[in-house]
Write a structure and sequence with these properties.
Helix content is about 55%, strand content about 0%. About 15% of the residues are buried. It has a domain of about 90 residues. It is built from five helices and no strands. The chain is mainly α and about 140 residues long.
Length: about 140
Amino acid sequence: MHNGTNNLQTESAVGVGVLPESGSKRVKKTPSNYYINPAELREEVIKSKERNELTPRAVAMFQTMAKEASKKLRYRDEEDRKDCIAFAMMDVVRYWRSYNPEKSKDPFAYFTQMIKNGFAKGWRKLHPLSSGEKVSLSHDNIYTM
């Protein structure tokens, strides 16, 4: 065998999950799409409900969620982004007690939606629509059959 074939065999052995030195199998981690573990978030919210105040870890998790969610949106400037994150955090701090762990096992989705609603409230507060941009429908134009 020449040198090139030898390298290919070593690379293919590594590619199937065998460590070259020890010969043991690699343990593959399952990839997570979340930057916050939903189970850990759920535990923190339950602890917070027992204490009747948010734990510092829960606050940090919510801040991370708000920052990550803000990356999905476009803003006119960085100050708007920061203001919208602040509005979202205000909503989380105001309404976090409404999460019911017995009803929902996924606090990530619940609080992500709460954060997104906070962004929308913040944007509407920062950039209200003028009356010329609003659409209104009168009842006279609605027909029923």
